[in-house]
Amino acid sequence: ISEWKKLGMQFDAFYTGYLGSPLQIQIVSDFIDDFRQPESLVVVDPVLGDNGKLYANFHDSMIKEMRQLITKADVITPNLTELFYLLDLPYKEQNTDEELKSYLRQLSDQGPEVVIITSVPVLNDIHKTSVYAYNRSGNRFWKITCPYLPAHYPGTGDTFTSVITGALLQGDSLPIALDRATQFILQGIRATFGYEYDNREGILLEKVLHNLDMPIQSSSYELI
């Protein structure tokens, strides 16, 4: 970091994912403060937990620091579990559209212009999952629903936010970026599902990477 300061390095975007300690979050936060330009894009994937629980070895101090980090972001992409930790609310798996819109607004009020919630179960349909998003600029809410596949691969959240970041940097609108990322994850899981190998390796990105070059054929997002 000190060498980059000497060199006057500048960055188009800052994107944070898994951070292993409160100290790491503080280092990243200071880095953003030191290097951010007025036109920079700051994306924070506030990795804290899943399925209603914190990840192993994470404590309240991680939640406290992550709440501070998201105030500096333009875009955040918590899953449903992380959303409730960031808002300091008890976890609730089933939520109505109106409740989710309220949560999105509350998180956006803390700083980020765009809030995207992933891994949202669809009410009364265990075979589907949804992504919700809010853009404070324009006060618009978006929703994408896709099939839920009973396969668990680490890193899909990282991949989702990576595609979101790349799409926004290349000029995609928020709903198109959401569509691109959601479809890419779905394609990746489907391409991987039939192979017999250790799921801990994650999805087979190389099988579907070329799909990112293709134009969106049919959009599945809806305005809510």
Topology:
Layout: H1 2-7, E1 13-16, H2 22-35, E2 41-44, E3 49-50, E4 53-54, H3 60-69, E5 75-76, H4 80-87, H5 97-108, E6 114-122, E7 125-135, E8 140-147, H6 156-169, H7 174-193, H8 205-208, E9 221-223
Parallel strand pairs: 1-2, 2-5, 5-6
Antiparallel strand pairs: 3-4, 6-7, 7-8, 8-9
Helix pairs in contact: 2-3, 6-7
The proportion of residues in beta strands is 15-25%
Task: Tell me the radius of gyration.
Answer: 17 Å
Category by helix and strand content: alpha/beta
Percent of residues in helices comes to: 25-40%
Biggest sheet: strands side by side, in what order? 1-2-5-6-7-8-9
The largest sheet, given as strand count, sense and whether it forms a barrel, is:
7 strands, mixed
| Helix-strand pattern | HEHEEEHEHHEEEHHHE
Shape: globular
Q: Roughly how many Å apart are the termini?
A: 43 Å
Give unreliable regions as ranges. none
> How many individual β-strands?
9
